[in-house]
User: Which sequence fits this backbone?
């Protein structure tokens, strides 16, 4: 410090000095004004107090800094708490929506599975009704009183079923005797009249169809059909149904219904097609 500055500091009369604020000290504006108005002795005292940490201005700056830091920490904590709360609410809302969507998908899947199961049960029942496994079968009866050549000591053994004794012989039907109330010539006359009348009616009403069967194809009423072709088949049992010619041989045609739920089948022999018991129609393309 120059001599002129020291003289100015010593000659200056003591007066009330304004305490600088924290931001003024940071900007060095208030600090320069504060220290420029003090004497050298006062500055040395301030320096010692600053080194000891007891200077009032240093303490005020520290208090203001700690206050600002505390305020900043509180704001940060409030912001973190609010952010966590918003994230928690968003998570709970998305979790509820996902649970709702999952429950709806499960209900739809359960309904579809129940529908498929019901259709499968109906199809199984229809297939079972078409099979002949529910008819009673004749069991092979073994005569336990029959003695075998292998018996020793007069014991009675059961002979195992073989080709000769496995199938029981069919019982011979007894002769049927009929007592007619009319004489034989009148009965014969009535029978001849009945059969001749029915034969004439059949010959007049029955129509024969032109059918030719070959392997992989057949001709019906001048129209050619190939194996795998979709047609309409009509008979007395099922009526007219859409079907496909699954297999064609020189003696029989096998038709299968084309609907996914329909398991009906039609076996049409050459005589069935000629005599009209089974009729085939072309399927028109849309």
Assistant:
């Amino acid at each position: 410090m120059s001599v002129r500055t020291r003289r100015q500091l010593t000659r200056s009369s003591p007066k009330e000095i304004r305490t600088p604020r924290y931001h003024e000290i940071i900007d060095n504006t208030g600090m320069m004004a504060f220290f420029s108005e003090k004497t050298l002795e006062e500055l040395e005292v301030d320096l010692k107090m600053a080194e000891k940490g007891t200077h009032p201005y240093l303490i005020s700056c520290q208090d203001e800094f700690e206050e600002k830091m505390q305020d900043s920490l509180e704001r940060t904590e409030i912001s973190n708490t609010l952010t966590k709360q918003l994230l928690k609410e968003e998570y709970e809302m998305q979790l509820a929506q996902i649970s709702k969507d999952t429950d709806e998908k499960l209900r739809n899947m359960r309904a579809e599975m129940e529908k498929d199961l019901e259709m499968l049960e109906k199809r199984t029942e229809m297939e079972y009704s078409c099979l002949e496994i529910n008819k009673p079968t004749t069991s092979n009866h073994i005569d336990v009183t029959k003695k075998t050549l292998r018996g020793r000591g007069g014991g009675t053994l059961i002979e195992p079923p073989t080709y000769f004794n496995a199938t029981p012989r069919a019982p011979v039907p007894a002769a049927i005797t009929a007592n007619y109330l009319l004489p034989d010539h009148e009965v014969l006359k009535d029978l001849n009249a009945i059969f001749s009348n029915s034969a004439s009616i059949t010959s007049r009403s029955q129509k024969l169809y032109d059918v030719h069967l070959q392997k992989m194809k057949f001709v019906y009423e001048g129209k050619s059909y190939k194996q795998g072709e979709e047609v309409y088949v009509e008979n007395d049992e099922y009526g007219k149904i859409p079907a496909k010619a699954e297999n064609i041989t020189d003696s029989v045609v096998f038709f299968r219904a084309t609907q996914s739920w329909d398991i009906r089948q039609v076996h049409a022999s050459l005589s069935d097609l000629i005599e009209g018991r089974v009729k085939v129609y072309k399927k028109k393309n849309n």
Summary: The longest strand covers residues 239-248.
